[in-house]
Amino acid sequence: FCECSCKLELEMNNFETVQGRLLLLSLLLSSSIRSWNVHNSDNNNNFAYVQTALLYTNPWTGDRRVRVSTLAIRVTDTASNVLPSMDFGALAALQLRLNLPHSNYSSASRFTLDSNSNSGTVDPSSPDQIGDGLLTDARHGMLTAMHQVLTAHRTLSIENGTTPSLAPESLRHWPLFVTAAIKSPLLRPSIPRQGRQRRSSSLAPSPRGDERAYYMYHARKVSPACASLLVNPVLLDVNAASFEWKQTVTVSDATSNLKNSPVVRLPSPVPASVSNLAADGIYLLDACFVAYVWIGEEADECGNNNNNNSDDGLSDELRDKIYNGVQQLQLWSQVGREPKCLRPTASLPLVVVRKKTDVAQYQALLRWMILDGTTHNRDFESFCRSFSEEIRKKA
């Protein structure tokens, strides 16, 4: 039953091929509704069209509604054209769902392109090995999938005589996404590696079991629009933009109203690294389930406490900018009659972190600096350098 108490009846019919550019849909039967895949075989049009029809029937009044949808999917006969046309958001969501550990998870169920090998490619510089645990297998599974796909991409590029690259334009953020996922609360080890700094072993585990379970719960049903944000934070420089709402223009055309819907002028994201955090800067970090406001030492000393009447020590102007930025990060879609939040959760708590005084909160914020090295992983630049060298050796 749907929200309007209508019963949905759906019956799949055999595929039907239609010649020409026009799509035809047979008459709907009163007893049921049928769904057809309609393929346009015109050689000059490289699309496969999937057309479906849904019949909503009200069990009390007998009213019927038919919803017809058409989806155009690009097709090709050349294997090298597949990866450049991939949707990165869909790939990220699919990889999160396939590689996250669950009760029936095993290395045999991981995605692989190598039919002659049952084991994945292990990063020799990684401190853990396959078989140590489900999280370890999941980390290596994500690395293996990306390694095999990008190796195949380079091999096909060389065979077709095109300039080889590490990744196609559509997947240029894939290495960053995998690095962020491995360092995120989803897959990173909870206990720091015990080395020379023995005091690190006395710290509380991060993430804790309930935090990791919360991330995994949302990762298993994440949408392509939020898959990257779930593990890859967005760092914004508060002083780089006005964070003011864009004024709307009242016009008669509904489409123009939609294009000019109220938005906040946000600056371009800053790479998530400690080296990019200026001592006199103020930054807004969007970590999907929580937002951090990082205030540098010099910025905290330069008078951000002027004209404020609250306990957070922020000026009214700075508080308004942060509030507008958080509102824009929550309201992703204006499609429809009311704004719709596409995040896994609508709430976004705000944590103010001052490097000078908030030591514990600052350490939690540093874990989201995914471009920097950790006790278990290298920095992103070293990872890409060694990863590209491995691909060149095999392709």
Automatic annotation (TrEMBL):
Single GO molecular function: SNARE binding
Residue intervals of the Gelsolin-like domain: 265-300
Domain of life: Eukaryota
Listed Pfam families: Gelsolin
Matches recorded under InterPro entries: ADF-H/Gelsolin-like_dom_sf, Gelsolin-like_dom, Gelsolin-like_dom_sf, Sec23/24_helical_dom_sf, SEC23_SEC24_subfamily
BP terms from Gene Ontology: COPII-coated vesicle cargo loading; intracellular protein transport
GO CC entries: COPII vesicle coat; endoplasmic reticulum exit site
Region called Disordered, residue ranges: 188-208
PANTHER family for this protein: SEC24-RELATED PROTEIN, SECRETORY 24CD, ISOFORM C
The protein's name in its UniProt record: Gelsolin-like domain-containing protein
The organism of origin for this protein: Pseudo-nitzschia australis
Lineage: Eukaryota, Sar, Stramenopiles, Ochrophyta, Bacillariophyta
